[in-house]
Design a protein that fits this description.
Blueprint lengths: L13 E5 L3 H9 L3 E5 L13 H4 E5 L2 E5 H8 L6 E5 L15 E3 L2 E4 L6 H9 L3 E4 L10 E4 L2 E4 L2 H9 L3 E4 L19 E5 L2 E4 L9 H10 L3 E4 L12 E2 L1
Parallel strand pairs: 1-2, 4-5, 7-8, 10-11, 13-14
Antiparallel strand pairs: 1-15, 3-4, 6-7, 9-10, 12-13
């Protein structure tokens, strides 16, 4: 049976995370989660060059498709995993979204025009249905609550997934920090650390849809865990191992 890494059934013990996100690393470490750090890539714009969801795609069952540029450095840290190198992950868009896809059960949400061939092969071999979206940043843009419930700022993803029978909470865009030039996405600022806990990188209560988000999480018996000392930050999320 194929595992769904972003929806853990128990508390995760380790994860992949961008090396420069010290605040988030400290948070997760305090929760007892070992953080295996991903180096920055000089082929990507600075604001995303250390993002886990740009450089890695966890297929489950100990297989990770990974930016070829960093594969050698991470191989020694992931001896129990098979790493499948993916070439030419680079800025600008759309070459930076080849691995930015969301795997939920037997469905993959991505822009199939830009997603890596390695991911397409993985889907074909494992009978995974690809749900095509125009949003290339399909991992950044989705906070996955359950196999059938998501939170997103993206209008297109919201409509698409509602039509696919997902329960979708659509929230206002622009309230997640990425850089001085651009705002980020809720998916890149969050991730489940156990079946009933969702980590957020900053003060969720500052978000204008805070009450709606709390209600949506409560509907699925999910407790939000967040740091009130800073704003929500799109750090590229983390990849549960």
């Amino acid at each position: 049976m194929r595992t769904c890494p972003i929806l853990p059934k128990k508390k995760i013990s380790s994860c992949l995370i961008g090396a420069k996100y010290i605040d988030e690393i400290n948070d997760l470490t305090e929760f007892g989660i070992e953080c295996i750090t991903i180096p920055s890539s000089d082929s990507l714009f600075e604001e995303i060059n250390s993002h886990a969801d740009i450089q890695c795609f966890n297929c489950g069952n100990r297989v990770i498709i990974i930016n070829r540029q960093i594969a050698g450095e991470l191989q020694g840290k992931l001896n129990d995993y098979t790493l499948v190198p993916c070439a030419d992950i680079k800025s600008p868009y759309p070459d930076d979204v080849k691995l930015n896809a969301t795997l939920i059960g037997d469905k993959l949400i991505c822009n199939k025009d830009f997603v890596a061939d390695e991911i397409k092969v993985f889907c074909a071999k494992n009978n995974i249905t690809i749900i095509h979206t125009k949003q290339g940043y399909a991992k950044c843009s989705l906070c996955v609550v359950t196999e059938n419930a998501v939170i997103t700022e993206d209008d297109g993803l919201s409509s698409l997934l509602k039509n696919c029978q997902f329960d979708v909470l659509k929230i206002k865009p622009g309230f997640v920090h990425l850089s001085d030039k651009h705002y980020g996405f809720i998916g890149g600022a969050s991730g489940k650390i156990s079946e009933n806990q969702m980590y957020f990188s900053g003060d969720l209560s500052r978000h204008p849809n805070y009450k709606e988000i709390l209600g949506f999480l409560n509907k699925y018996n999910i407790e939000p865990i967040f740091n009130k000392n800073r704003q929500l930050n799109d750090f590229g999320g983390f990849i549960p191992l």
